[in-house]
From TrEMBL, chains A, B, C, D:
GO CC field: cytosol
Annotated PROSITE patterns: FUMARATE_LYASES
Domain Adenylosuccinate lyase C-terminal, chain residue ranges per copy: 355-437
Any matching Pfam family: ADSL_C
Sections of the chain in a coiled coil: 113-140
EC number: 4.3.2.2
Family to which this protein belongs: Belongs to the lyase 1 family. Adenylosuccinate lyase subfamily.
Keyword Coiled coil: yes
Keyword terms, alphabetized: Coiled coil, Lyase, Purine biosynthesis
Species lineage: Bacteria, Pseudomonadati, Pseudomonadota, Alphaproteobacteria, Sphingomonadales
Superkingdom in the source lineage: Bacteria
Protein's UniProt name: Adenylosuccinate lyase
SMART domains in UniProt: ADSL_C
Annotated GO biological process: 'de novo' AMP biosynthetic process; 'de novo' IMP biosynthetic process
Amino acid sequence: MIPRYSRPEMAAIWSPENRYRIWWQIEVFAAEAMGKIGMIPADDAATIRKAYDADVLGEIDVPAIDAIEAVTKHDVIAFLTWAGEKLGPERRWLHQGMTSSDVLDTALAVQLKQAADILLADLDRLLEVLERRAREHKRTPNIGRSHGIHAEPVTFGLKLAQAYAEFARNRTRLAAAREDIATCAISGAVGTFANVPPAVEEHVAAALGLTPEPVSTQVIPRDRHAMFFATLGVVASSIERLATEVRHLQRTEVLEAEEYFSPGQKGSSAMPHKRNPVLTENLTGLARMVRGYVTPALENVALWHERDISHSSVERYIGPDATITLDFALARLTGVIDKLVVYPERMMKNLDRMGGLVHSQRVLLALTQAGLSREDSYALVQRNAMKVWESDGQLSLLDLLKQDPEVTARLPDGKLEELFDLDYHLRRVDDIFGRVFGRE
Amino acid sequence: MIPRYSRPEMAAIWSPENRYRIWWQIEVFAAEAMGKIGMIPADDAATIRKAYDADVLGEIDVPAIDAIEAVTKHDVIAFLTWAGEKLGPERRWLHQGMTSSDVLDTALAVQLKQAADILLADLDRLLEVLERRAREHKRTPNIGRSHGIHAEPVTFGLKLAQAYAEFARNRTRLAAAREDIATCAISGAVGTFANVPPAVEEHVAAALGLTPEPVSTQVIPRDRHAMFFATLGVVASSIERLATEVRHLQRTEVLEAEEYFSPGQKGSSAMPHKRNPVLTENLTGLARMVRGYVTPALENVALWHERDISHSSVERYIGPDATITLDFALARLTGVIDKLVVYPERMMKNLDRMGGLVHSQRVLLALTQAGLSREDSYALVQRNAMKVWESDGQLSLLDLLKQDPEVTARLPDGKLEELFDLDYHLRRVDDIFGRVFGRE
Amino acid sequence: MIPRYSRPEMAAIWSPENRYRIWWQIEVFAAEAMGKIGMIPADDAATIRKAYDADVLGEIDVPAIDAIEAVTKHDVIAFLTWAGEKLGPERRWLHQGMTSSDVLDTALAVQLKQAADILLADLDRLLEVLERRAREHKRTPNIGRSHGIHAEPVTFGLKLAQAYAEFARNRTRLAAAREDIATCAISGAVGTFANVPPAVEEHVAAALGLTPEPVSTQVIPRDRHAMFFATLGVVASSIERLATEVRHLQRTEVLEAEEYFSPGQKGSSAMPHKRNPVLTENLTGLARMVRGYVTPALENVALWHERDISHSSVERYIGPDATITLDFALARLTGVIDKLVVYPERMMKNLDRMGGLVHSQRVLLALTQAGLSREDSYALVQRNAMKVWESDGQLSLLDLLKQDPEVTARLPDGKLEELFDLDYHLRRVDDIFGRVFGRE
Amino acid sequence: MIPRYSRPEMAAIWSPENRYRIWWQIEVFAAEAMGKIGMIPADDAATIRKAYDADVLGEIDVPAIDAIEAVTKHDVIAFLTWAGEKLGPERRWLHQGMTSSDVLDTALAVQLKQAADILLADLDRLLEVLERRAREHKRTPNIGRSHGIHAEPVTFGLKLAQAYAEFARNRTRLAAAREDIATCAISGAVGTFANVPPAVEEHVAAALGLTPEPVSTQVIPRDRHAMFFATLGVVASSIERLATEVRHLQRTEVLEAEEYFSPGQKGSSAMPHKRNPVLTENLTGLARMVRGYVTPALENVALWHERDISHSSVERYIGPDATITLDFALARLTGVIDKLVVYPERMMKNLDRMGGLVHSQRVLLALTQAGLSREDSYALVQRNAMKVWESDGQLSLLDLLKQDPEVTARLPDGKLEELFDLDYHLRRVDDIFGRVFGRE
């Protein structure tokens, strides 16, 4: 966890306090269920539950638990020892027939579910901002670029609508990953329920908003976690895409949009004029990290037999690091898009700078429709287009075409001029917005 | 593509012939739609469709197309040039207003959908075999192992039921990934539909069993592909898990199961007695490869602006390699499980070799339930358990406990013997099977 | 292996013929050594060697060997059976005391060494081209960009000199990786030399240009291969860096350099004017693939005990794929740089377009040296710089500074003009070239 | 950074205090050099140096610097502002002509060099322990296993000698990576030395034990860092290999060695008899993490133009995380090997349990040498070996061979018995130890 890339709400999920509190819930709810089915005395179970409701633990004394763990070298036993002191003799019924993994894995499921909920909310905020800015620039013309080369006009709103659709897909994927991860295992040693019947698991699952793990092997199978972290890696890659777009738009020669630059900010210790897209560069790096956590999560799947503990150290890193980083990145991206300074005039200036080359395809199509073969049409357009290209936008394609008798034989001046109409390219924007945001 | 790790049906998806045939379908169905909406002459569109129905292309002449591409350096133009020769002048209407990406990306979507269908069928076969073998060994006792160390009894059927549940999850994930990838984009340059209206895309999508891409940017966004390949990486990791289980079970000292070893097979050029788990070791390696394709797929997401073509070379590798390898691996795993030689006697022998230590937890619980504190119970069991452990299974935990007065004060002989009952551990097997396979 | 990304010389290394020929050399040289030390009859050893010198194998009949392997399911035995038929009864001495791994691993070492030699030669050609183009543009002014934003002037030659230095480092790393990989193991089952003394290994190693593996365990340890493929991943990342630079330079708005565009080439099926940086985009994708092979190679290290064969399938993919792809990519990059069309006038035009902002740091320094505090100097420069920035290069920083009395109080007009001298920024180019290419 | 996987010395390298102290050194040494060459007043430079020698900074006030950074949003400026207050007016000469990157990148180089020095010392300690334990068990017989299946005898010392050789290679690689990373860049904006001559860089480099970066572009090129982290990934993979070996040896059925289990330690909250290889399982997970940092480091190489800052966030994670984790893992592995409890009797028992099958290859060779063809010899051995295999070690290969007339026709009883001599397999152990540790 890097403090500067952390937000408090997500970081809190990974605090020892939150973890211990979830452990406590698991133990208490399990005892409650055991009381109901007569596995332990009902009165003692009720006493435990009441102690829970009265928050008998109070402040979690992390150093005290750490001190016990230093001796036992076992975290759950250390916690139970500490927590047991807050109870009377009914403490003996805690953890009956359970294993540490029942507690650890179910708690991790709760933490990942909590984390997913924050990430889903992050995505909601991002989607909201993307929609707002997309609608704002729905018809702001912008040159579309393939291979970094001017192609044909789009609108800036379309770019953001694409990003919206992409993050909406990511929301769907993350919601599925959240379901995948949100399971509860209270199945005892090697998962046979020999010492703790499924009813306990079912009760704890319901109390925690989880579903029971159909077959655990002391641990919850790690394909679930692998899918979860792989999904975060996909979301991160989409962040990189949009961040890269902003970085490109802010390049000196392009400068169609800029990250908001606050008054006191210094871009460079040496060059006072600089306004750098540092937030989106930062997001590019953060995306690399979240992606980097995918492979360890995949490697965690192949545990030996019913379980080994090699996954645990990995999860101590990537549980917090992947979710905290992604939360921060989503919030940062939301801020960047929210406050992005957009320069429509510059967009139009760039669009125009190629001497009308961006309309070449339309001319090509018109020639074909006028009866020329595709190959001949292509040759005709290209010989004029190349002159414009080589003039660095000083020549105009429209002018050259008007002077090319082989062209004018098929397409008279008036017809040619029509083909250079910007609105032509924007005529389906409503359709696309309708697909993405729904009809209004 | 490594021939030895390829199966013909999946490999055929990635053949040039299949690719060109899909391209042809896209062009023909697009022309058909254009005819309907009057974008091109209806008669010519009908002529093209008829030519398609009559299979005018016949055998695809790949070398001829390659020869054209060597000149044009453009694959779609090369194909259209070749295919156009099979038509009359109506050929001019092919590809109207479309870009190469419309063809390439939609075709890739079809290929990945076809590949996903094979993989789903592979999973179905694997699930079928897993269920059969799980039911066969539903009550075959087997020592459960955590950390490679004997824990408590499970059954071999439970192991396979776990694998079944894991691959059933993978089936669900893959089905979602298939939906995610199965979209059609016929939106023209930079995706604005300026030269080809959405109706064409909708028609082609329906004809190919795809859904229209809500907003493309000349290309289908690569987050879809990233999700697809990430999902394959998760499936591969589950393969590694089950393969690793078999490798462990086949170890000389364990030998509870063995890959089927055909009569003519030689295990080693030097040591004639050896029967090695080479298929599952091979699967372990194949899983590494499929996982290795995840990161390039994630890196493909951040294309520049409306598109660049950096994703293309990556997909030429991982499209075939990931799907062919995974198909092969799933089939191989299915064969391994199908023919796995299981040794129930050896399983029982191993289970017994620890002098009854596997029942220690039950004793611990019983002592607790008899009124002893958890800590004292633990100490009591551990001091006897350690002696057994150090005897390498020569001493019996039951015998030692019977001789420990502090134990017998709480648990008389008869009670102790009950605690060493194997069936106790298997009493919830029906519940678990019910959860995994449904009640019968 | 993707044919379009393969070059014949590198692909040949991975042909079955080359592999079998190396196997043959290993077996023959081993027999020769065994003859020398009396492990097998000297005459028979000499007969085998003579048969080798006479090329008794002739053309390798791969299908015949495949047919034998289909029965034995063992590749080395299949080859030995086929090759043995070319010999008389002395064939019995082949492979004495050896294991398949002795042959397979040593052969892989030879193949990787051969591959490394080609890659080193590729790097040499790239370095040669980089040096030539760097010297050609040693003093071609070019705006340096940090964060994609104009910073201060550099030269285009400096960019290439940096690339030269980077690839020179990669050459050093690859040479080390080649040494690391080039070892020979002829140590028999589990590597104890029980049945074949070290002298045999030493002889074969010398004959093949390898060093003996100090301690093998039947297999050559895979940390060597991991280091090799990790090094290829670093080289690939440097390729991506230079390819990305070219992609940026070719952007429409920048257009300071372009990939060579051959007369017949079509940039787009739709937009005839387009010249896209498709080679460098392709290189970006290829770099992703070579990087993708690093992790499987790292996962291959942890073999079980003396060996398992999980590494083998991985190496069947990445051995050819990583080396063939990198060879192709290096050659393609060399071609791109060799023929890169450079536009010095456009470079100068871009450099000038910011109204002199690129000289702001020099003014800042001069103000400091004239006695103003750093903070005040910064504020003074920034308030003028911001105006220029906001004018989109229409205002001139020099003009504004000349009109700012707080500035002119410290720096009179003549002094200010001096600070806007381009040569100032290029005065250390000779020093840097001297460091990179050596003094002339 | 995960506190439980951190050791203080390595963690201290990544503390803000250490980073600021290095920044201070860079600024002071640079000023000193500037004074020498007359770039700033010699007296002021001397004053700064004296202030440094007198430790004018004293305790680094991190919160104070953070507070300044919160305003300036620029870390180096924040530090310089804070540190400048400790000086008189000579503070104006600090950072003359330099950029933040000069400070940041050179400081990172110092930190990585410091980290590498600790890791090299870690490797030295590990090598020392491996050598000691290898010599201790140089002749402790142990069954060699390929594919997890008994093959032929080795010694436990040989296993450790192999590990020694592997980590000795890793030491060489890490030493090379340390050299690669240990460069100094003080080259000013975009690396041209326009405002700060190479002499300053050379002075600072010498003072910090670095070499000057031949050509930087404001930043030190990231191929160096990529190589560094890739090397750490290789070391981690070797850790995983040795950790996996221990995990296998500790399996209940094998139990040839065990991690040291301290008296107070509890293996399981449920099963008191368990001693789990938790340290080596933990190491397996830690290796996954260190490997996971390789790809982000490789992705960091392709910065845009002269620099972007996407690498920075990645390095804030992986700089500390990779080095701290690897340091911890190496120390933990050293402890595991140092205190590993080895059971030679159990090793011998396992070795014997296969009824002498481990000697089958020797019989095969002897039959061949007695004149039988390889194929016939193989068949003869295999038909007896298979019976032993199927008896689960109850039958003895030697006994069966003595009863097989086709065998005894070539190999009489005495000869056969010789072939079952364990020492035969160990006769080259001295040779191998000589290669690995040098002759004594």
